[in-house]
Specification:
Radius of gyration: 21 Å
Mean pLDDT: 85
Helix content: over 70%
Distance between the termini: 75 Å
Largest sheet: none
Structural class: mainly alpha
Number of helices: 10
Strand content: under 5%
Length: 229
């Protein structure tokens, strides 16, 4: 009888995880990722969104100073070169970031003694990154139309958009951002449902990683302030 049940269970069709599902029904999508991880199409979508955000942020840069020194034609060349560089860095940098993030989470889960494949964790990371990529694109679009800054220093969906602080404090407040928090919550869900960790461990790890990321941004902001002083 138990063998029949196992055969029936193995023959059940598991629906593929959808990118939209990570927003509308994250728990169900994460369970599908655990059973049937998908990487290629979600990865392409995320890379396109990240590259577009990087390109829009470059278009928002004021090249008036460059134009004064090199002329209109020189400024155009600089702008074109910077735009191409942004697209390339968006693709390569995005891939490297996703791989490192997935490797860190994979190592944590394996250290905890759970049986999981790297493809499952990488698929989970890519799906969750859709949310943070959308946040980056939204900020880039706002910056493009509003102007007056750099996407790395002006995050409209962060706490710093209200406070308007600079330096280390500004970087710290910029890290407290809606889509970043959303991604942290999804990571906790993912570690529990895909990584099979306990709810307590999943939330603790996600929050610690978020805090470490905030500290790194704060340190970066403090360093930039010292260099610019």
């Amino acid at each position: 009888m138990s063998e029949q049940l196992n055969i029936q269970h193995s023959n059940e069709k598991v629906d593929k995880p959808s990118l939209l599902g990570i927003v509308t029904s994250p728990i169900e999508t994460l369970e599908r990722i655990k059973q049937q991880p998908k990487v290629l199409l979600p990865l392409i979508v995320v890379i396109i969104i990240s590259s577009l955000a990087a390109y829009l942020s470059v278009l928002s840069v004021d090249y008036s100073i460059v134009e004064e020194e090199l002329g209109a034609e020189g400024a155009a060349y600089v702008g074109a070169f910077t735009a191409v560089g942004a697209l390339v860095s968006g693709i390569i940098g995005g891939l490297i970031t996703l791989l490192i993030s997935a490797l860190i989470l994979f190592a944590i889960v394996k250290i905890a003694g759970k049986q999981i494949r790297f493809k499952q964790m990488f698929s989970m990371t890519v799906f969750i990154s859709l949310v943070t990529s959308i946040g980056t694109l939204l900020n880039a679009i706002i910056l493009y139309f509003v102007g007056g800054g750099d996407i790395t220093n002006q995050v409209f969906t962060s706490l710093n958009s209200i406070v308007g602080a600079e330096g280390a404090l500004g970087s710290f407040l910029s890290s407290i951002e809606i889509f970043g928090i959303w991604g942290t919550i999804l990571t906790a869900f993912g570690l529990h449902h895909v990584g099979q960790l306990s709810k307590g461990a999943s939330w603790t790890i996600s929050i610690v990683l978020f805090i470490l990321g905030s500290l790194l941004l704060t340190l970066s902001g403090a360093t930039q302030s010292l260099v610019g002083a």
